[in-house]
């Protein structure tokens, strides 16, 4: 074979090999998510629903008060439907006054929230004909609607948390007046229950007198993928180091940020130097914008409490709060903010799916709960008493499940624990779960 012919043949082979390799590279698809695919990272979300303030700020009790007696709907779903109804009633003639000495009211309904909130939030929660945002530094944890029979109107009061001032308004709708009047004529019917006032607590708390039987539920559940959380919490996952700190526990970190995922929960912290300029948005609005951006409300979450730089949302199921006091709290979403920057983010990665088992549980009566609480010395520190579902992770041969079991809980120092049995140490009743 001539030398020139051999060179030509070798060149053809090299060109052909190059074409095959190039074609293979074009058609190769990696079996992992590319870290530098910024578009795919931006599209990551947790699959929840975007929420508004009115979705998150809801009452946990509605109490009808007449002639020194207290009543509520037996079913919390009915209380929530009543609240949705009164949200449509137009509130007018709003004015701020000094609070006068309490006077006896004939018939009124009190709508009670889990925590104090700025009065300005009710601009978006209720139907008001003028803004409430001018009432700065005015916080309330409830408001009342009183029947005024002579004028046949409804008188609304928001009493400040320090009980020094009151914002008042009027609902002139005759239809609304008749609707509330009708309810007060039905309080002896089966859909209502009698309540008693827990005195000497941090605030007025109303507890049903009779026993309740509620259902315990076992659920399958979905768990949010660790890689999705990583891609939300780190703008450039290429520079994130990863390690397994314990079996089933993953740690992602950069110089400033750290994300720990374990036991179906996450804890995130960012220690970067902060912007010192104050921002206009409240922590509630900052948090709402942040969580909505990655569709992080993966269940029915409601405002539990907040300060100037921190906020907590609690999971609810069947209109009852859910409690889980494990290290990775699976019943709450918690954030801390420093000006406009997120510095802490702890949350559950559990999303309930399908009910696979149920059982009935009879709870202690309200009388027993009152007696148990009044035997203890911390009554003045009690912020709330509620029936709540304890969330725990159960395991069998088929995998992990969520168990929701009802019980009576009390809130002390912003922490929920089971109402103790008579003459037992409260600390022994702290509920855990993993």
Overall 3D shape: globular
Count of runs of 4 or more consecutive helical residues = 9
Number of strands: 24
Assembly annotation: single chain
Keywords: Membrane, Transmembrane, Transmembrane helix
Transmembrane segments: 9-28
Protein name: YycH family regulatory protein
Pfam families: YycH
What does this structure look like?
- This protein is an alpha+beta fold and 434 residues long.
- It has nine helices and 24 strands.
- The strands form two sheets. Strands 11, 12, 13, 14, 15, 16, 17, 18, 19, 20, 21, 22, 23 and 24 form a 14-stranded mixed β-sheet that branches.
- The longest helix has 25 residues, at 3-27.
- Residues 20-42 and 426-434 have low confidence and may be disordered.
- Residues 4-420 form the Regulatory protein YycH domain.
- Pfam families: YycH.
Write a concise keyword list for the protein shown above.
434 residues; disordered C terminus; 3 domains; alpha+beta; 42% strand; TATA-Binding Protein; 14-stranded mixed sheet; globular; 9 helices
């Amino acid at each position: 074979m001539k030398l020139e012919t051999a060179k030509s043949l070798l060149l053809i082979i090299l060109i052909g090999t190059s074409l095959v390799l190039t074609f293979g590279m074009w058609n190769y698809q990696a079996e992992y998510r590319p870290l530098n695919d910024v578009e795919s990272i931006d599209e990551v979300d947790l699959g929840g629903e975007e929420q508004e303030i009115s979705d998150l700020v809801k009452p946990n009790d509605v109490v009808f008060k007449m002639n020194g007696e207290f009543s509520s709907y037996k079913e919390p779903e009915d209380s929530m439907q009543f609240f949705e109804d009164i949200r449509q009633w137009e509130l007018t003639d709003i004015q701020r006054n000094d609070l006068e000495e309490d006077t006896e009211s004939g018939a009124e309904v009190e709508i009670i929230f889990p925590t104090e909130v700025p009065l300005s939030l009710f601009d978006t929660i209720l139907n008001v004909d003028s803004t409430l945002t001018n009432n700065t530094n005015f916080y309330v944890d409830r408001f009342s609607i009183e029947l005024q029979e002579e004028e046949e109107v409804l008188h609304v009061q928001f009493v400040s948390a320090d009980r020094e001032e009151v914002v008042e308004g009027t609902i002139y709708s005759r239809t609304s007046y008749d609707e509330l009047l009708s309810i007060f004529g039905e309080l002896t019917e089966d859909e209502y229950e009698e309540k008693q006032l827990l005195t000497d607590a941090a605030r007025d708390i109303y507890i049903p007198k009779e026993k309740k039987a509620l259902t315990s539920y076992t659920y399958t559940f979905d768990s949010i993928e660790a890689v999705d959380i990583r891609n939300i919490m780190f703008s450039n996952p290429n520079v994130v180091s990863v390690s397994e700190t314990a079996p089933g526990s993953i740690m992602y970190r950069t110089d400033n940020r750290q994300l720990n995922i374990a036991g179906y929960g996450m804890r995130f912290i960012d220690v970067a130097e902060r912007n010192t300029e104050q921002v206009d948005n409240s922590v509630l609005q900052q948090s709402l914008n942040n969580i909505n951006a990655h569709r992080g409300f993966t269940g029915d979450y409601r405002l539990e409490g907040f300060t100037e730089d921190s906020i907590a949302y609690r999971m609810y199921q069947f209109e009852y709060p859910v409690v889980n006091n494990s290290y990775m709290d699976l019943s709450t979403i918690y954030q801390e903010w420093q000006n406009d920057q997120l510095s802490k983010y702890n949350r559950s990665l559990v999303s309930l799916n399908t009910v696979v088992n149920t059982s009935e549980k009879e709870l202690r009566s309200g009388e027993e709960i009152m007696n148990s609480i009044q035997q203890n010395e911390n009554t003045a520190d009690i912020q709330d008493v509620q029936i709540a579902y304890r969330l725990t992770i159960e395991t069998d041969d088929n995998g992990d499940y969520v168990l929701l079991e009802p019980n009576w809980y009390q809130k002390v120092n912003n922490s929920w624990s089971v109402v103790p049995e008579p003459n037992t140490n409260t600390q022994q009743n702290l509920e855990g779960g993993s």
